[in-house]
Every structure is written in C-alpha cells, then in structure tokens.
Amino acid sequence: MRQHTSTSRGRPGGVLECDAGRPASTPGCGLADCDGTTTLITDLPYGPEAAEVARGAVALALHGTEADVLADARLIGSELATNAFVSGSPPLVLCVDRRRLATGDLEVEITVTDGGCSRPAPHAPPAPHEQAESGRGLVIVDALADAWSLTTGTNRSRAWCRLTRGAPSSSADA
Fold it and tell me: Domain Histidine kinase/HSP90-like ATPase: where (predicted)?
C-alpha cells in the first residue's frame, strides 16, 4: 500500500499522518469482542515502565496471532508508549483493536493517547543521529505499520497505527 504523508498546522499542536484511512476518533473504552473485533483498552503507567506494560497488553490482545505479527505489534506498542511518556503528559491509555477482515486478513490497530504536549508533531519521522541512543520510535513505526498518524495538542495527543497482514496460509496451499 502506498502511504500518503500530510501535515496540518490549523490547530495547536499538529498532525503527522501516513494514510488518510485512519479512524476519525479514538475507540470507546472497555473490552469488547463483537463482529469479529476484539478491543483491549488499558491505562499505562506514566514512567519508563509504560513500554513494558504496553508490550504485555499487546501480547494479551493478540494472543494466538502469528509470531511475526505479534513481534511487530509489540514493538510498535512499546515505541508509541515510550513516545507518549517522553513527549506527553499523563494519563497514558493504550487501545488495541484486532479484527479478521472478510478477506481473511488480520487488521490490528494500536492507539496510545496521552494528556497532551506543547510541541507540534514533526513533519516527518525525524532521522536520529547514527550514535543517538533514542529518537528512532516513529522511524520504526513508519517502517512496520501500513498506516499511522500522530496528532499532538496541549490537552491530548494521539498516536495511531494499523497493521494488516494476510490470512495465514495452510500447508494444503503449498
């Protein structure tokens, strides 16, 4: 899928998004399993442990998913949680939506919201210096996700991404 990047400067903060097909709002709160969709929503600690808690929550939400999808989703969840802790303010909330599409493909959406930040979203994922120990989070998300967005504001920031993976092949297809 070809990704489209656009930026909006019309409100405080800013928006960085890849793919215009993102959802219009953050999913509702709760845990649901209906219409083939499973949603897990959890608070994350406001601290460096947010990444570890996010990885565990993503693993729980995607239990039984193919190993490569699970690995990508756990890494993305960890990076989004870390960015929210480092750049945002409390509260941090993680939402993981998992659904099987009519085509048999798996679609996973991961959203992390926080209490906001005063800096606008970058125009593109910043390229960290080669020796830098941090600053690769959005670059990783951009590389792994099929679509993603980052919206920052003084009262709320939201990082969202979508992974779509093909239906698992059976040995009978070989």
Answer: 52-153
CB atoms within 10 A of CB 88: 22
CA–CA–CA angle 71, 15, 165 (5° rounding): 30
Q: Where are the domains of the chain?
A: 12-20+30-125+136-168
Q: In what order do the strands lie in the sheet with 157-165?
A: 5-8, 14-18, 147-152, 157-165, 106-114, 92-100, 37-44, 32-34
Q: Which carries the bigger pLDDT value, residue 30 or residue 89?
A: 89
pTM: predicted TM-score of the whole model, two decimal places:
0.73
What are 37-58's pLDDT values in tens digits? 889 999 999 999 999 999 999 9
Q: Which fold has domain 12-20+30-125+136-168?
A: Heat Shock Protein 90 (3.30.565)
Neighbours of 144 (CB within 10 A): 16
Assess contact for 117 and 101: CB atoms under 8 A.
no
Q: Name the pLDDT band for 162 (thresholds 50, 70, 90).
A: very high
CA angle 39, 51, 91 (to 5 degrees): 70
* Both tokens assigned to 115: 């209490």
